[in-house]
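Quick one: structure for this chain?
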Amino acid sequence: MRRHSFFVRGMALAMMVSMVAPQLLEARYKAKPGWNLFSRDQEVQVGKEASAEVEKQLPLLNDSDPVVRYVQRLGAQLASHAPAPAYPYTFKVVNQKEINAFALPGGPIYVNLGTIQAADNEAQLAGVMSHEISHVVMRHATAAATKQMLAQAPLSILGGLMGRGIGAQLAQLGISFGVGSYFLRNTRKAESEADLVGTGIMYDSGYDPHQMTVFFDKLSKEGGGSNSRAAEFFSDHPNPGNRSASVAKEVGTLSPRQYQSDSAEFRSIKSTVAGMKPLTAQEIAARQKQGGGTVSSAPASEIMASSTYQGFEHDAYTVSHPGNWQVFGDKSSSVTIAPKAGVSENALAYGVIINGYQSEGKASLDDATHQLMKTLAQSNPEMKAIGQDEDIRVNGVPGKSVDFVGVSPVPAPGGGTQREREWLVTLQRKDGSLLFLVFVSTEKDFDQMRPAFETMLRSLRLK
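Got it. Here's what it folds into:
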């Protein structure tokens, strides 16, 4: 099996830190989304792709159905009070008897018909939907996928993956967000966070947040056995413990107000769904049953940097790059800048990856850099540092520089493997986090590539 350089695994780490500011969430809820490889636009992309697959597998009520139109109106009302960043939320109703609901990355939300049948009032249904909206806000599915990607893929591979469009490439790592996906099964911590954020959405929408836990407690009393209507719900949404007390504590921090618990429209819909006979999970399963390349050795003319440069503006920095190199990524995510011939669908052989890194706890530039180096080394034992890290300054910003060697994804001219050089540069941002760049090339071409790398570094300006 061909080995890949540390640069592929490092890409997973390189993209872990979202550039989306979580200040609003942190200020109100004392919580924020965890490290995440995916940008908002990438979440939306994979969510759309996953929803297309989900909707091939699950029996959905038609969008013209009065039940669906009601759920969509209620969902839009709740989503209008969701914390930033804004997502293009959509709401669908699954014609399934079991009680459950789930959210895909980027906004698609599905509510089982059995959930509507089980809700005693509109506030309880609003509680379930606010909870699912909160999973999107807190980015729980893609955060779980990020951990998996970091654990299994090296940096240069992920540089190639993210550079080529994330949705189609995740399958190469065995990652999907479809029906039954591991990444849609939430942890107790994620459930607690969704309760917390969901409380705020309900409050701001005028619904009694206590009704969310009243409904969940009702399901608990029915039991979570395999024959229970709520078995699937508790498989995907484990009880975090002290749910009612936690929500009550949060509500206690909010100003008293008059709540809405029900509506005439809900009672009308409730009457409609009472006479409907949705499919069971077993029936749906029966229906369903019936029913990477590598970077090759490219000519130098396709790899080497041109003498002309052009600018790229990111939310966190600006940088210039060779005019014949491409920018893969967007202004709010990790970015790969590379010659087209230096990137394949699963590897990066020439170019640079730029992204942020948040150290564990408060750390100096030196400590944060060594944390990053340690993580990279753990992800790929083939990575070896050359000498010691050195102090540098880039346009007045303090930084660190260190060189590594590894194994290149480019095969040696006579077959077999060849060595790769990686140059890591870290810069300390105003908020204490790092912006880091990893320049990569085969060892034999590194001296020729380095002038272009240095020109890019000199052009870098942090915002």
